[in-house]
Amino acid sequence: MATGKINVSVDNIFPLIKKFLYSDHEIFLRELISNATDATLKMKHLTTIGEAKVEYGNPIIEVKADKEGKKLHIIDQGLGMTEEEVKKYINEVAFSGAEEFLNKYEDTAKDSGIIGHFGLGFYSAFMVAHKVEIITKSFKDEPAVHWSCDGSPEFIMEPADKETRGTEIILHIADDSTEFLEDNRIKELLSKYNKFMPIPIKFGMKTETLPKPEGAKEEDPAPTKEVDNIINNPNPAWTKQPADLEAKDYQEFYRELYPMQFEEPLFNIHLNVDYPFNLTGILYFPKLTNDLNVQKDKIQLYQNQVFVTDNVEGIVPEFLTMLRGVIDSPDIPLNVSRSYLQADGAVKKISSYITRKVADKLNSLFKNNREDFEAKWNDIKIVIEYGMLSEDKFFDKADKFALYPTVDGSYFTFEELQEKIKDTQTDKDGKTVILYASDKEAQHSYIETAKAKGYEILLLDSPIIGHLMQKLEGSKENISFARVDADHIDKLIQKEETQISKLSDDEKETLKKELEEAITDKSFTVQLEAMDSDSSPFTITEPEFMRRMKEMQQTGGGGGMFGMGAMPEMYNLIVNTNHPLVSEFLNTKTAKKKERLINQSLDLAKLSKGLLKGKALTEFIKRSYEMVK
Ligand code: ADP
Ligand code: MG
After folding, report:
1. Cα of 286 to ligand 2 centre, how many Å?
2. CA 433, CA 467: separation in Å to the nearest integer?
3. Near ion ligand 2, which residues have CB within 5 Å?
4. In CATH, 11-205 is 3.40.50.970
5. What is the residue extent of each domain of the chain?
6. Ligand sitting nearest the alpha carbon of 123
7. Ligand nearest to the CA of 77
8. For atom 19 of ligand 1, which residue has the closest CA?
9. Which burial class, exposed, middle or buried, applies to 140 when counting CB atoms under 10 A from its CB (0-12, 13-18, 19+)?
10. d(C-alpha 315, C-alpha 429), whole Å
């Protein structure tokens, strides 16, 4: 075995940069504006600490497109560079940075975290330009420098006649990149990456309307003036202190972030931490429906006010990716590669910090204004339920404020609910039974039956609730969930008195046989039960376990449990042997009449469970008209 150092010749650098270094060519502008911003901020710092005895003024950064000359200019009024500095930062560092890049190259993909880390941001200009010029004058009293390079390793450096402080970068746009000379494309990039950068960025001019002079006539047009078109907001809300912001500031910022979003957010969470990592941001809870489809307005990730990505997977726990807003952290590298992120300790801490902040905010909303929290519950529950499912730490906190609404519009916490029903709703093993419905309309008759007995019925209708019930049953003692149609209500909940059947054992045997003969549909299992005579003669139920598994398969998770394929439809037909109609089955002499009676009753039960459809429904209606005629 031999080890050694690969000697990379400089000739290889430019083709490499162009091909592999950057996944996205468009980021060159972000990099150059970031450098211009850095140069300006450095100037500001040096003047504030008194190290530079020059006027800081009101510097801006200008982007200028020269379509005819095929040139793009990025001009700043920052600290500039002396000849020595150009040599050091532009000529030399890039090569050492390149060395680092190549060391890393083996295990990092195209979109790995290179720019900014290795002093190669500047060289991203060569992705779109065949020649790059730098004209720069330092704030120090030294002559201006003109550097140019046509993409080969040789560069030219000569004196320049620039009088003002700062740097101008000129890109001679390559033929395959002329899109970057188009106004609209540049605007698009500026608004994507630079919308909230801290130094004003000018792109073109715009017309501003001035107030009319005194004494002007009605019909006189208002005077106008050409002014710099500044495309960014250098002081976005998240960089300010929460104490300095009002509710309307948060709303306005939401509008700024998502101009196409017309619905107001429900509430926001201002993030602000500087130890053990640095992070600021504002998260918004939008109104969410039960539709779990990915939305397009996502949380945006910034690094020092530079847009990085709106793919925050790995930084924000998955259940919170449904929120909107901004996260800004200098501790998150500009170019975010997934594998890097997952391994990064700071990023992990960020994720759990955000989870904690969100839980605390929800808890305080719940505590301070429960009524309002209840009103918002329907719009936020999906995030909370998802969080409770996926993050144990969040579960522990949310368990105290997660709400369980009833079909009548009351809201309980889990503890309140348990307290309310623990003595009245128990099954034969003494477990507390939490009754619920998922659809008030479809399960109406079952809800009414359960209500008549004085039971609490929850309305749980989010698509992932099955998974959450499963989790609650596993983590709480002695409780189980049952949908109102999971079994006959008197079997779901233990009643004091047991009913005595009016039928003899022989009669029951005959009845069962006759029912099974008359009912040809094999998805029904006939069960005879002695119940109140005013309970329905037939009730169709669907065992909780099977139904829930089936639903959970549809929303992911819990799948695979039964191997492949859809699970079969399975229903129980509970027959109340104490109901007069059931006695009539037995007493009916002709077989044909008996069968008709049974099937008409079964259809009624199906109708009440929403199972009567299509041809069967048409025939049922036809038959019923015949009967009432
Ligand atoms: P990084 O920004 O990660 O340091 P770059 O390759 O983007 O790496 O830039 C290299 C260096 O060149 C910068 O650190 C800075 O010292 C210098 N530089 C680049 N652009 C400017 C500019 N507009 N004004 C002053 N210095 C600049
Ligand atoms: Mg840079």
Report:
1. 35
2. 17
3. 35, 121
4. no
5. 11-205, 237-370, 403-492, 505-628
6. 1
7. 1
8. 35
9. middle
10. 45
Distance from the alpha carbon of residue 7 to the mean position of ligand 2, in angstroms: 25
Pocket of ligand 1 (CB under 6 A): 31, 35-36, 39, 76, 78, 81, 89-90, 93, 116, 119-122, 167
User: Distance between CA 558 and CA 296 in Å, rounded?
Assistant: 28
Burial class (CB in 10 A: 0-12, 13-18, 19+), 474: exposed
- C-alpha 331 chain-centroid distance: 22
> Ligand 1: which of 77, 84, 89 to mutate, judged by most atoms within 8 Å of the beta carbon?
89
Residue 37 Cα to ligand 2 midpoint, Å, equals 9
**Ligand 1 midpoint to CA 30 (Å):** 13
CATH class of the domain defined by 505-628: mainly alpha
In one-letter notation, the amino acid at residue 244 is D
**Which atom of ligand 1 lies nearest, measured to the CA of 166?**
24
Q: In what order do the strands lie in the sheet with 524-529?
A: 524-529, 571-576, 538-541
| CA 85 to centroid of ligand 1, rounded, Å | 10
| 3-class SS of residue 80 | coil
- CATH number for the domain whose boundaries are 237-370: 3.30.230.80
Nearest ligand 1 atom to alpha carbon 123? 6
Provide the phi-psi class of 70: left if phi over 0, else alpha when psi is between -120 and 50, else beta: left
Q: Which amino acid is at 95?
A: F
CA-34 nearest atom, ligand 1: 2
Structure tokens at 215: 């004494």
- Residues 477-499 have pLDDT tens digits of 999 999 999 998 888 898 666 67
What does the pLDDT look like over 571-628, one tens digit per residue?
999 999 999 999 888 888 898 898 888 999 999 999 999 999 999 999 999 989 998 8
> What is the helix, strand, coil percentage profile of the chain, to 5?
40, 20, 40
pTM of the model: 0.82
Say which CATH class 403-492 falls into: alpha beta
AA identity, residue 167: T
Per-residue b/e over 514-536, b at no fewer than 16 CB within 10 Å? Answer: bbeebbeeeebebebbbbebebb
